[in-house]
Write a structure and sequence with these properties.
Distance between the termini: 20 Å
Helix content: over 70%
Mean pLDDT: 91
Number of strands: 0
Number of helices: 4
Radius of gyration: 23 Å
Length: 113
Amino acid sequence: MPEPDPIAERSAEMQRSPEFQRLRRTFMAFIVPLVVVFLAWYLAYVLIAGFAPGFFATPIGDSNINVGLLFGLGQFVTTFAITMLYSRWANRTYDPIAEPLAHEMERAAGAAR
């Protein structure tokens, strides 16, 4: 019978800890709404492009720019904005909670060697 892996055991313990559960809840509370909003925005873009191409073809003023182009560029802007927002949130909120847990796991891995 193989010996139990102390790192795997410590990892399972860590996942059950209140600190880890708090970290997970914090992450999910930030990510899930952001993903839902972005996917709704993207789905709207795809559906409008598929079912209302005339709307997307509507020119903006007297230029060659139309509504579809602005929506498409908006997808890129939204992606970059979400990335920057997540990075800032992670640095300020998530990482300070995760760091002690990561150090504890590193100590456990070092002690197991």
